[in-house]
Each structure stands twice: as structure tokens, then as C-alpha cells.
Amino acid sequence: MTTAGPGTGFSLSYELQRRDLAEMQAASKARRIRRAHQIAALVALALFGAAFTAITAAFDRPSLVKGSPGAPGWVYAVDAVTWCLVILAASRAWQLSPKGRARAIWRTAPQLQGHHHDVVDNHGITSTAPDGTQVFIPWAGFARVRETEHGFHLLDDTGDVRGSLPKRGLDSPDLIPALRDMLNRSVGGQPPAER
Question: pTM value?
């Protein structure tokens, strides 16, 4: 719904989908950094495991290491533990992926599933959850807007997503440019949120 005058605003009505949650997770700078650290740890651990396994294999081949009685038993234990840690790190990296996080949130927070209603006006965004709970966030609570193919994600000054507006919630796709302009003008023209 679009109105005229000083109260100009938009009304978005939609059913939340897992795709929306995945986009929100992908838009979060903090989550991207955390996942990058997890992937870096996974790569380092996998390289260490590969090198240690190659050394173990070399000790077990008398043709490569002359006079070698074979690798000691503790070396096999270190190999096993290292590769178990690689598997755990890979699992954690998958869980931190946007789709993995969306799947976990969808499963553990069924109260998010259902009809959502957001009102965007000159003061901020009022979101109504399926259970009727309303949350108002003034424009000062947002530092920037990140637009994706399916929505607008409003981030705070730490890069975390504080609000998300799926484009399909608008009455018409023709309203997307006007909403984009309002979001960019409202978020950019506000002083930073106080801590």
C-alpha cells in the first residue's frame, strides 16, 4: 500500500520462506567473516593432515625411506585424530553456510513460519510476526541497505542484518524502485544509532 503526503509508506505482506532466511544470513557481514575463518581453519587442518599422512605413508614404504621399520603407532593415532577434526571443521563450515543456517533456523524457530506484515514509513519499520508480536525499529537503527535479487536487507553498524523486506511482499513489482529510493534516503540520512 502506498499513501501520499507526509505519511508516505509501504506495506509488505508475505509468507516467510527458507530462501528469505538464507539471504539474510548471506547479507550478514559478521556471519561471512565467521564462515571465512572456519573455512581457513578447515583448509589449514586439511593441509596439515595431508602432509602428516604423506609422511606416515613414506615411513611405511621402505623403498622411499631406506631402513625404515615403519611408522610408529602414535603417528596413526595423530592421523586419525587430524582427519576427524577435518570432518568436524567441514561440518561446521557447512552449518555456517547461509543455506545451512537457514535450515537450522527454520527447524528450530517454527514461530517464524507463517504470515508476516511489515510497514515501512518515514519513522522506520514496524514488523508484525505471525503470532501478532510487533517490533518497531527506527531508521537510526540501520546503517546501510543491501539489496539482493529477492529483497532488501537492513544492516546495523556492525554489519549484522536487523531487518529484511522481501520484494514479493509488495503489492506490485512496480513499487520496488520507490521502496529502494525510500530505504536509501531514510537509512543514509539518519545519524548512527546510539549504543
Answer: 0.66
